[in-house]
Design goal:
The protein is of the alpha+beta class and about 700 residues long. About 20% of the residues lie in helices and about 30% in strands. It has five domains: about 30 residues, no CATH class; about 110 residues, Rossmann fold; about 190 residues, Hnrnp arginine n-methyltransferase1 (Distorted Sandwich), CATH 2.70.160; about 140 residues, Rossmann fold (3-Layer(aba) Sandwich), CATH 3.40.50.150; about 170 residues, Hnrnp arginine n-methyltransferase1 (Distorted Sandwich), CATH 2.70.160. The protein is built from 17 helices and 36 strands. The structure holds S-adenosyl-L-homocysteine (SAH). S-adenosyl-L-homocysteine (SAH) binds next to helix 4. Keywords: Chromatin regulator, Cytoplasm, Differentiation, Methyltransferase, Nucleus, Repeat, S-adenosyl-L-methionine, Transcription, Transcription regulation, Transferase.
C-alpha cells in the first residue's frame, strides 16, 4: 500500500505530495513519537506504579479478582505493572498496530504473556462477552491518554465509552482524577504571540505608526492549543494577576461525560493589571486519597526539587479574546469552555457575567476571522512584534533604499514592503502568491494596507516568482530585492533559502546594479550538551524494572529508516543546552548571485572547549542584511564562559542528534568533532554527518 505525504519543497516553497511506501508514515510516527520521553519520565512511571499497586490491593481486599483494562497500552508498561502488582488478568488495548505488535513482544519478553492480552483495536471497538475480546467487564481502569491540554488526545470520549461498555460500576481507576488549574497573568511577551502591536518607524518625514486592521484587533484567534515549556519562561516576562485557581476536575472512576460544557470560577485579582493570558496545567491523583499526585505545575508553584522534566506533558497558554484591565480585589468570573477535545477561556466582570448567566454562556470555540492567525503562527506573531528585530531591518533598508528605488519583497506575510514604503522607496511591490491553498494571504494584505491608507502605495503581485512578468512591475527593473526571508512552509532553518531560489527565478527582472537584502546568508553550527532534550532520542533499556529494549530498537530503526543524517527542528529557548564547541560558520549563500548548479559542501572539525556530553549539533541561519547588519535565527550572542546559550525566542533551530545518543554508547571524552555538510542545490535540503 502507498500513502501520500505532504512535504514542503524548499526550492519552490510549495507543498508537494510525495508517494511513500506504507512504512513511511509509521516510521515517522515512531521516530518522532513521545514514547521514549514517557519511558524516561520517572515521576510519572513511579506514581502510576504506586497507584496501580494501591488499586489492585483495594480490589483484592474486597475479595474480588482484579481484572484490569489498560486503554492505550503503548509498550504494555502499565499492564505489566498491574500484573506485577498481582492483577489476575489485564486487557491491554492499543489502536496503533506497530505499537500493539511491540507490546506483544515486550509482554512476552518480560514473562507476562499468560496474564496480559494485547488487543489491537480502538477501545470503542472492543467487545465484551464469552466470545468477545474481553471475557467480562474490568474492575480496574488504567489509562494514560492525556496530552498537555489533558483532553486533546480524546480521553473524555474514550472514558465515556469505557464506563458504558467495558468496566464495572464502581470500578477503580488509575489515575483516579485529574484537576485543571489556571492562573491569570499579564505578559507582553506571550500576548505578542496573539496580537500584532503597532509598529513605529522613524522616517525622514516624521514618525509613522503601522496599525493592524480592526478585524485583527477583535479576532479570537485559533483554537489550537499553545503548549510550551513554561519553566523556561523567566518570571520577569510575566506578572501573575491571580492566585492559582482550580478550574475543573474529572473523576475517572465514575461515568464521564464528553459533551461540550463550561466551568466557571470567581476570581479576585491579587494585583491590578491587564488580564491577557490564562496559564494552565493539570495534575492527576493516582488514588482517591490524593496522596499519589503527579503534577505539571510550573516552577513558581512547586518546589524545584519536585520538578521532573518531560516533553510529552507541558503547560498551556490560553489567550483571552481581548485584553481586560482588572483591579485588585475586583470580582471577576473566569469561564473555561470545552468541547470533546479542546478548552478555551473567557473572562468577565462580575456584573456582565451575572447577566449572561441568566441567558446562556457563549460556548463557541474561537475561530480566526481576520485570517492573520491562519497566516502567522504564534512564534511568527512574536517575531513580527520584536521591535529590536524590526529596527535592524529598518536600519538596513535605510541604507539601501533611494528615492528612485523600485522595490520587490519576497517573503510570506512580511511587513517589509510597508517599511520600505515609509522609508521612501518610490515603487514597492510584494509577492503574495498562495503557495498553500488554505488561505488567501492577499485578502489579509488588502485589509492591512487599507487600515494604514496604503492601498495605492504598495502593489500586491499574486504570482509565483517564475511567472513574474514585466507588466507586474510596470515595465521597470527591480533595483532593490528584499526578503526577511520567511516562508510559512519552512520547517528547518535553511528552508527559508527558498528566497534564493525565488531570487534566481526573477533574475531577468533585476536591474544590473540591483541590491539584494539580505545580501547573503550563512549556516552556523555548534556542538552542544542538552540539559534534557537528549532524553527524547535516548534509549531507555529498563523502565521500573521492565525490559523495554524492544521499544528502543524500534525507535532506532525508525530513526534510521529515512530521517537518518537529517536534523529536526526544535525551539531551543525552551530546551536549554550548553555549548561545547565554539559556534562555527560552515556554509555561506550569496544572494547577489543565482543558485549554483553544483552542491555546496564543507568538511572540517571543531574542537570541544568544554567538558560535557556531546549530544548533538545545533544548526541555524544568519542573514546578512547589509555588510554590517545581520540577524540571527539561532544564537543571539556568544555563549558565556559556562557555555550557556541564548537562543532566538521566535525561531526553531535544527538539532542533529549524534548516533551515540541514539545508541547510548559510552564514549571516552572526545576532544573534537568532525563534520561533513552538504547543501544539495537541486533539492534545497542539507545532509550532514558527524564523527566524534
Ligand atoms: N500506556 C503507555 C502508553 C501511553 S501513550 C504508557 O503509559 O507508557 C497512549 C497510547 O494510547 C498510544 O499508543 C495511542 O496509540 C493509544 N490510544 C489512544 N487512545 C486509544 C483508544 N481509545 N484505544 C486504543 N488505543 C488508544
Amino acid at each position: 500500500m502507498k500513502t501520500f505525504c505532504g512535504r514542503a519543497n524548499p526550492t519552490t516553497g510549495s507543498m508537494e505530495w510525495l508517494e511513500e511506501g506504507e512504512d513511511y508514515d509509521y516510521h515517522q510516527e515512531i521516530a518522532r513519537s513521545r514514547y521514549a520521553d514517557m519511558l524516561h519520565d520517572k515521576d510519572r512511571n513511579v506514581k502510576y506504579y504506586q497507584g496501580i499497586r494501591a488499586a489492585v490491593s483495594r480490589v483484592k481486599e474486597r475479595g474480588e479478582k482484579a481484572i484490569v483494562l489498560d486503554i492505550g497500552t503503548g509498550t504494555g508498561l502499565l499492564s505489566m505493572m498491574a500484573a506485577s502488582a498481582g492483577a489476575d488478568f489485564c486487557y491491554a488495548i492499543e489502536v496503533f498496530k506497530p505499537m500493539a505488535n511491540a507490546a506483544v513482544k515486550i509482554v512476552e519478553k518480560n514473562g507476562f504473556s499468560d496474564k496480559i492480552k494485547v488487543i489491537n483495536k480502538h477501545s470503542t471497538e472492543v467487545t465484551v462477552g464469552p466470545d468477545g475480546d474481553m471475557q467480562c467487564r474490568a474492575n480496574i481502569l488504567v489509562t494514560e491518554l492525556f496530552d498537555t491540554e489533558l483532553i486533546g488526545e480524546g480521553a473524555l470520549p474514550t472514558y465515556e465509552h469505557a464506563h458504558k461498555y467495558l468496566v464495572q460500576e464502581g470500578c477503580e481507576a488509575v489515575p483516579h482524577r485529574a484537576t485543571v488549574y489556571v492562573q491569570l497573568v499579564e505578559s507582553r511577551r506571550m500576548w505578542s504571540w496573539k496580537k500584532l502591536f503597532p509598529i513605529r518607524v522613524e522616517a525622514e518625514d516624521g514618525e509613522k505608526i503601522l496599525v493592524p486592521p480592526s478585524e485583527m484587533e477583535n479576532c479570537p484567534g485559533v483554537p489550537s492549543v499553545c503548549d510550551i515549556q513554561l519553566n523556561q519562561m523567566p518570571s520577569s516576562d510575566f506578572s501573575t494577576l491571580s492566585d492559582v485557581v482550580t478550574m475543573f476536575s474529572v473523576d475517572f472512576s465514575k461515568p464521564v461525560q464528553s459533551a461540550s460544557t463550561y466551568y466557571r470560577v470567581q476570581l479576585e485579582p491579587v494585583k491590578s493589571g491587564k488580564a491577557q493570558i490564562v496559564l494552565s496545567w493539570w495534575d492527576i491523583d493516582m488514588d482517591p486519597s490524593g496522596l499519589i499526585n503527579c503534577t505539571m505545575a510550573p516552577y513558581w508553584v512547586k518546589p524545584t526539587s519536585a520538578l521532573q522534566w518531560r516533553d510529552h506533558w507541558m503547560q498551556c497558554v490560553y489567550f483571552l479574546p481581548r485584553e481586560e484591565p482588572v483591579l485588585q480585589g475586583e470580582k471577576l468570573y473566569l469561564t473555561a469552555c470545552r468541547d470533546e477535545y479542546s478548552v478555551w477561556y473567557n473572562l468577565q466582570k462580575a456584573r456582565a457575567a451575572e447577566e449572561e448567566h441568566k441567558a446562556d454562556v457563549g460556548v463557541e470555540s474561537p475561530v480566526c476571522r481576520c485570517r492573520a492567525h491562519l497566516l502567522w503562527n504564534r512564534p511568527r506573531f512574536g517575531e513580527l512584534n520584536d521591535q529590536n528585530r524590526t529596527l535592524q531591518y529598518i536600519k538596513a533598508l535605510g541604507k539601501v533604499l533611494k528615492t528612485d528605488s523600485v522595490c520587490l519583497c519576497i517573503s510570506d506575510g512580511s511587513l517589509l514592503p510597508v517599511l520600505a514604503h515609509y522609508l521612501g522607496a518610490k515603487q514597492v511591490q510584494c509577492m503574495q502568491s498562495s503557495r498553500i491553498d488554505l488561505y488567501h494571504p492577499h485578502e489579509l494584505w488588502q485589509a492591512f494596507l487599507k487600515a494604514n491608507h496604503l492601498e495605492d502605495k504598495i502593489k500586491i503581485i499574486e504570482a509565483r516568482p517564475e511567472l513574474l512578468k514585466p507588466s507586474h512591475l510596470e515595465d521597470k527593473k527591480i533595483s532593490v530585492l528584499v526578503g526577511e526571508p520567511f516562508f510559512t512552509t519552512s520547517l528547518l532553518p535553511w528552508h527559508n533559502l527558498y528566497f534564493w531560489y525565488a531570487r534566481t527565478a526573477v533574475s531577468t527582472h533585476l536591474a544590473r546594479n540591483v541590491t539584494v537584502l539580505p545580501q547573503s546568508a550563512s549556516l552556523h553550527m555548534m556542538v552542544v550538551e542538552f540539559q534534557d532534550l537528549w532524553r527524547i532520542r535516548s534509549p531507555c533499556g529498563t523502565c521500573e524494572g521492565f525490559d523495554v529494549q524492544t521499544m528502543d530498537d524500534m525507535i532506532k530503526d525508525s530513526l534510521n529508516f529515512r530521517e537518518s543524517k537529517e536534523a529536526e527542528p526544535h525551539p531551543l529557548w525552551e530546551y536549554p543546552c550548553k555549548s561545547l564547541s565554539e559556534p562555527r560558520e560552515v556554509l555561506t549563500f550569496d544572494f547577489t548571485k543565482t543558485v549554483p548548479e553544483h552542491c555546496l559542501s564543507t568538511e572540517g572539525s571543531v574542537e570541544l572547549l568544554r567538558k560535557g556530553k556531546s549530544h548533538g549539533a545545533v544548526l541555524w541561519m544568519e542573514y546578512h542584511l547589509t555588510a554590517d547588519i545581520s540577524v540571527s535565527t539561532g544564537l543571539m550572542q556568544l555563549p558565556n564562559e559556562k557555555g550557556n546559550c541564548e537562543w532566538n525566542p521566535h525561531c526553531k533551530q535544527a538539532v542533529y542528534f549524534f548516533s551515540s545518543v541514539i545508541e547510548s554508547e559510552i564514549l571516552s571524552d572526545p576532544t573534537a568533532v568532525t563534520y561533513a555538510i552538504n547543501f544539495d542545490t537541486k533539492t534545497g535540503e542539507i545532509a550532514m554527518d558527524f564523527k566524534l
